[in-house]
Amino acid sequence: MIRLLVVCAFALASLAGFARAQQPTPPATAPADSQASQPSQQSESSSAPASAPATQPSQPSSSSSKRGKTHANDFLVIGTVFTDKAYALPGAKIRVRRSSEKKFRWETYTNSRGEFAFRVPQGEEYEIVIIAKGFTDQNETVSAKSGISEDTVVYRMQPASGGKK
Length: 165
Known about the structure:
Elements: H1 2-22, H2 32-35, H3 38-42, H4 47-55, H5 58-67, E1 74-82, E2 93-98, E3 106-109, E4 115-121, E5 125-131, E6 138-143, E7 150-156
Parallel strand pairs: 1-7
Antiparallel strand pairs: 1-4, 2-3, 2-5, 5-6
């Protein structure tokens, strides 16, 4: 019985210490004149938590300046792929390339409802190729030169002429 009480007391003390260690440190949002009184409070604790809030605000601004590329001016192509019987075609492969290039640069697949979407830089023409098992491939050119920021396309796939006459 005494052993059980000792084990329970030890477990409770451990949990209390763990919970105290998990509490977040308050953010350093105090005005400059009240920060002069903070060093005396922080001298009781370790110096690592005191320096952590000072570096956190500078990290997001430095990482945002490194990004440089935004997708705000990209051209959005939204589309749906259907079978010849007007059913949604999931899992169709969509490949995209600039009309002036031979290599495909973007690739995506249709979702369970036959829908897809992708972004490309504005100002060029793009060739879209839809590939699906049991259907003939389809090609279409989409122009991203018009100044409009998106285009919606719909494809109706034709069955491959393998065994039908």
